[in-house]
Amino acid sequence: MSSRDPSYAFRTVWRVEATIAEVRAVLSDSASLTRWWPAVYLDVVPVADGDAVGVGRTVEVSTTGWLPYTLRWTLRITETMTDSGFALAATGDLVGDGRWTFAQDGPEVVITYDWRVAAAKPLLARLSWLLRGAFSANHRWAMARGQQSLALELRRRRHPAAVPPPPGPTFRRRARRPRAAGSAD
């Protein structure tokens, strides 16, 4: 990978107090991403259900981090979720593949995410050589919020009233307002 290559290879390891079945229940519910991981997932729109075991399930997502940009990409499940993990592919502003693996370690699940991805959003791809460190730090920030949010979600599913909400996005996104007729913006 050269300094001008917009590709990244990330490995993230989370530890959460849970069973693999509990982790699978959360991660297999893509529609709930905006609720339990709102610091990163701004919008999730189902596109396809996939086959009987979930392969081909596809959602369009809008994600963010601590840097002030939004990525719009499509996540497609490429390998069914089992007790050992699952795989996905990304297209859109991000292009690549990811693999989640699960291992029970006593009362905790060790969750490893290997993410090989390239920035395809034109501006990010052009600036990767300059901002590689910032983009990598943004990914680490997003994944740290993910571990924190997953732990909270697992607790919330067990004891709903006793759990604080997950951290939200760094930058509040304002809805675009239509311009009034005749206004000069």
Furnish the topology, listing elements before pairings:
Elements: E1 7-17, H1 20-27, H2 33-36, E2 41-48, E3 58-63, E4 71-82, E5 85-92, E6 94-105, E7 108-119, H3 122-158
Antiparallel strand pairs: 1-7, 2-3, 3-4, 4-5, 5-6, 6-7
Question: How would you explain this protein's 3D organization?
Answer:
The chain is an alpha+beta fold and 185 residues long. The protein has one domain (7-160): Alpha-D-Glucose-1,6-Bisphosphate, Chain A, domain 4 (2-Layer Sandwich). It has helices at 20-27, 33-36, 122-158, and strands at residues 7-17, 41-48, 58-63, 71-82, 85-92, 94-105, 108-119. It has a 7-stranded antiparallel beta sheet. The longest helix is centred in the last third of the chain and has 37 residues, at 122-158.
Stretches where pLDDT is under 50 for at least 5 consecutive residues are 174-185
**SSE arrangement, N to C:** EHHEEEEEEH
Counting structural domains, the number is: 1
- Strand arrangement across the biggest beta sheet: 1-7-6-5-4-3-2
How does the helix and strand content classify structurally?
alpha+beta
The major pleated sheet works out as: 7 strands, antiparallel
Short description:
By secondary structure, the protein is an alpha+beta fold.
Brief descriptors of the model:
26% helix; globular; disordered C terminus; alpha+beta; 185 residues; 7-stranded antiparallel beta sheet; 3 helices; Alpha-D-Glucose-1,6-Bisphosphate, Chain A, domain 4
